[in-house]
Amino acid sequence: MADLALTLFPANARRTGRKLLRNRAFVAGAFLVTLVFLAIVLAPLIAQYEPNRMQIRMRFRPPSSEFWFGTDNLGRDMFARVLYGGRLSIEIGFWVVMLNAVFGVTLGALAGYFRALDNPLMRLSDALMAFPSVLLAIGIAAILGPSTSTAVIALAVVYIPRTARILRASVLVVRELDYVHASRAAGAGDWHILWRHILPNCMAPLLVQLSFVFAYAVLSEAVLSFLGLGAPPTVPSWGILISEGRSYIREAWWLTVVPGIAIAVTVLGLNLLGDGLRDVLDPRMKIQQE
Amino acid sequence: MSDALLSVRNLTTAFAIESGSTIAVDDVGFDVRAGEAVGLIGESGSGKSVAALSILGLLPTPPARVLSGSAMFEGRDLLKMPAKELRRIRGKRIGMIFQEPMTSLNPVFPIGEQIAESLRLHERLGNEAARKRAIAMLDRVGIPSASRRLDDYPHQLSGGMRQRVMIAIALACDPKLLIADEPTTALDVTVQAQLLDLLNDLRRETGMAMLLITHNMGVIAEFADRVVVMYSGQVAEEAPIETLFDAPRHPYTQGLLGATPTLAQTEARLRTIPGSLPDPAAPPPGCRFAPRCDFADAQCAAGRPTEIVLAAGHRAACRRTDATAAWQTA
Asked: Are residues B226 and B281 in the same domain?
């Protein structure tokens, strides 16, 4: 994440990088997120067992040195299941972020730059934001039927208006800056100005917003899966693990608690990362820091 | 005048405000001949910048609207041109530089990139050729070791350097006319002088014409061949530079010169013009300067004065030019 920020803000790259490293929230968040990503990517190397290998005689083993996170009702190793399950959660989060980056930025930029489009686009986003976010996601997922791509679409629809709104606000500020006027005086057209001069200068708030969207998406995906509206149960995402473990919550607490902790750690890490980015990149926060 | 590069006639620009509209530029006309430096001078709010921005179609519409007039440039009317064609003239045939060098460069791109941008837009140059031209331009505006500076970001340069970069951008495509809107106002006096020298040199080298917008009499004196004085959205007086300083005939011009400190001055206080600029939404009915004018009589307040041509290239919008002729420099 730090590298991304550096390439996006070459002008102040070194200073921004140093400030990020001094920001405790950012460092803690980056640490947690890196930890989660490493664990998920290296799952085949770390986990001793296959996530779907059943050992009926090993059912309901509590966490031990052999099964770090215990086993479930079919004797499957929870450590492997949580690591592999994270892959799906993170993957869904990633695609929601990507859709947000593409559509949220497009809609926000259009609404902020072309004033005639502002009202229709923003009223539409108001309408979408009027629904409680989880309810809207449940509604969309229920209509489209449970699948991984359904979850991605449902969560993207929920968060795109929020991203668009934030980008629109930044575009409204940047479009009035002197260098935009100067570029127009030099003969640049609307699209050129938008792409070359406005969007690159709206990256900071966008980056912060996307890190939060990632966190919310992981969380909401767990909610959808728990309710049976996310990915099909054959692929265990964290939400599904919790949902399955719920029946045995009295006998085997680890079946719900462990994936719960995984979600909490990931979301906490992403939120801290976003907070740190915002503290360093948001011009209004800078006043307090310097 | 047929030899004019830019010929503005009857330009009237209005801004929509809550209670209707206010006329910011009222029936303004002036010429800029090829290779000539014309100063457009006036107080803040006199409409000088709005006039220049109207010509290039750079005012946000709404709220601004050009109500009437023409601006003939190289035989074509800029005010009636489709947006797309006007865009090809901006930055290519007419360059423009602004007041704020600190904020007029995009902070996320190196300066060389920003010079090359206008070359790529207008001359379809490739990256390598644009880079070479950018180095040449930086060199020309007096930035030392240009090839190394090319990859600097705006925040690494001082205000004077940035204004030099802005000039390099404006001149990259060899425009016939450069409009400079208070180019030195935000800079130190010493840097101001250097930049004015630079602009003068560049003008001599390239033979381009220049329209310099300023409120600074000193800058005008150093720079312009001819001066257009604006007051409250209208042209008060137009004169060659020597005439303007030696024998101004409009009482407003006289007041401005009287309010300029000179080295020979013995008075402790500067003379000022009493009162302030009229409200543009409700200007006085007759001569707009009448309420502040020592020479004004009842007729001045009644009707707008017609322009009187006093000599070739010298005109003033004043009824009492006979009375103002006695003016002497203090």
From this structure: no
Q: What is the pLDDT of residues B43-73, one digit of tens each?
A: 888 888 899 999 988 888 778 888 888 888 8
**pTM listed for this prediction:** 0.80
> Which residues constitute the domain of residue B150?
4-231
- State the count of interchain CB pairs (< 8 A) between A and B: 73
Closest CA relative to residue B252, chosen from B224, B282, B228, B273:
B273
Identify the CATH number of the domain in which residue A90 sits.
1.10.3720.10
Report the sign of the C-alpha dihedral through residues A266, A271, A272, A277, in that order.
Answer: positive
Contacts of A117 (CB under 8 A, 6+ apart): A110, A111
In a domain, A64, yes or no: no
For B139-172, write each residue's pLDDT tens digit.
888 888 888 888 888 888 888 888 889 999 988 8
A114 vs B172: CA distance, rounded Å? 29
Instruction: Please list the residues that pair with B237 across neighbouring strands.
Output: B229, B316
Interatomic CA distance for residues B168 and A32, integer angstroms: 48
Contact with chain B for residue A188, Cβ under 8 A: yes
- pLDDT at res. A289: 45
Overall residue count recorded for chain B in this entry: 330
Count up the domains in chain A and report the number: 1
What are the residues whose beta carbons fall under 8 Å from the beta carbon of B281, sequence distance 6 or more?
A: B17, B19, B20, B22
Task: For residue B5, give the H/E element and its range.
Answer: strand B4-17
Distances from the Cα of A11 to the Cαs of B2, B105, B157, in angstroms?
49, 12, 12
With tokens 């014309």, the residue in question is: B38
CA distance B100 to A263: 50
- Token representation of residue A271: 């939120």
**Contact residues, chain A, for B109 at CB < 8 Å:** 196, 200
B185 touches chain A (CB under 8 A): no
Query: Is residue B227 domain-shared with residue B251, that is, in the same domain?
Result: no
Are the beta carbons of A187 and B122 separated by less than 8 Å?
Answer: yes
B238 in a domain, yes or no?
Answer: no
Other Cβ atoms within 10 Å of B21 Cβ, number: 16
Quick check: A73 and A60 in contact, CB under 8 A?
Answer: yes
